[in-house]
Amino acid sequence: MTRIIKNKRIVDDPWRIVTLAGGETPESVEVPETRAIVPLSVWLARKDEILARGEPAGVWLDAHEGPEAIAADLAHFALIAVNFPKFSDGRGYSTARLLRERHGYSGELRAIGDVLQDQLYFMKRCGFDAYAVRADKDIAAALAGLEEFPESYQAAADQPLPLFRRRSA
Question: Which domain holds residue 138?
């Protein structure tokens, strides 16, 4: 079983990520009967079928896919994953903040893809609470990245008040 960081702990991941292989379409890809995180295109094509299973639903957004595409369906998702196709692609940070702050999503928000230790603290600030660290990296070492800075000055998804407001309160 795959291990992830969730709520500042390393845990077994009960979810399976569904991807489209060459030649597969959203209508033809096999969606497992267990907890599955499906691509946005599969969700849009097979939403009724996925919901009818009775299992918690999960969807993943690629870097070029914004949260507007699923805004009306947020109540259906136990988990939303945001794919980081490469370390230097920062679009997922914006997606996370929009999901948390504009759309009010309160379920699990997971970073997947090219996720490295150096990113975790900043991902947490944007609203992520779960991380699928790249398989070739040490997940225990990455966990330490969440506590790299003891205090933050700016307001963000994880702390809506800036430090000067917290100190004056």
Answer: 3-168
Nearest to 143, CA basis, from 14, 12, 9: 9
Q: Say if CB 156 and CB 95 are below 8 A apart.
A: no
Within the chain, strands assigned E span 3-6, 9-12, 16-17, 36-39, 57-61, 77-84, 108-113, 130-131
| CATH number of the domain bearing residue 141 | 3.20.20.70
- Cα separation, 8 vs 14, in Å, equals 17
Please say whether the beta carbons of 113 and 139 come within 8 A.
no
- Whether 82 and 95 have beta carbons less than 8 Å apart is answered as yes
Give residue-wise pLDDT tens across range 27-78: 999 999 889 999 999 999 999 999 999 999 999 999 999 999 999 999 999 9
